[in-house]
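The instructor's notes for this session suggest beginning with a concrete chain rather than abstract definitions. Hand out the sequence below and ask the class to guess, before any prediction is shown, which regions might be ordered.
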Amino acid sequence: MREIALGQYYPTGSVIHRLDPRVKLVGTLVYLVSLFLVKNPLGYLFAGLFLMTVIRISRIPLKYMLKGLKGIIILLMITVVFNMFFTPGNVLFQVGFIKITDAGLKVAILMAVRLVLLIVGASLMTLATTPNALTDGMEKLMNPLKAIKVPVHEIAMMMSIALRFIPILMEETDKIMKAQTARGADLESGNIIQRAKAMVPILVPLFVSAFRRANDLATAMESRCYSGGEGRTKMKPLIYGKIDRIAYLILVLYLAAGIAIGRLPIHFWIF
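After discussion, reveal the predicted structure:
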């Protein structure tokens, strides 16, 4: 569980933690969008420096956040390999039909950096926001959709529960794998098909556990007379403060500066 940052909450009492959850949700969305708008390494460098500054202000240990990247190492490697080997360009290195081009190397590096920043940026939001605040923030932001009969409260609740279940299910997976290994199961050796078959004894109890937890959660909600968002009030209604308005201004400035830097001419590239 400690290796998965997404879905956990790390209280430090920092300025980032005290921001309105709507600000953090919008800020995360703006940051993720900005990563797809930049076109050169300078833009990614600026985005990375901005993210590191926010992490420093939040007082969340960087090592704690980087642990969450362990779960995407395989995806990261696949992304890098596919972009490096299958992007046309000037050949830098070739062995048989396998070749690495200059364009492929550039794209692979930029895609890897983008993916890392995406995961860390999304993890920061959940680490600095409680599940209840996250639900309230999403519901408030989606309030206009109520006009077209969208069940806003239920959607926000489901998204919050899904985020919260990520570390719980990862912890459950770790326990099951250790239990199967202690019983003599071999989960590491063999080819891809053999490894896939070895995962069956893990997936079956994991799904059973997930359904059991979902049933327990539904029973707990029913026993507390939960009946959806209709007519519900908030003990702590969300109200924007001065610090939230300043945060929005910083986001606007960041987006403008990020797009400007990220679209500089190609001769500003660092490689």
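Then share the key points. The radius of gyration is 22 Å. The chain has a mean pLDDT of 81.
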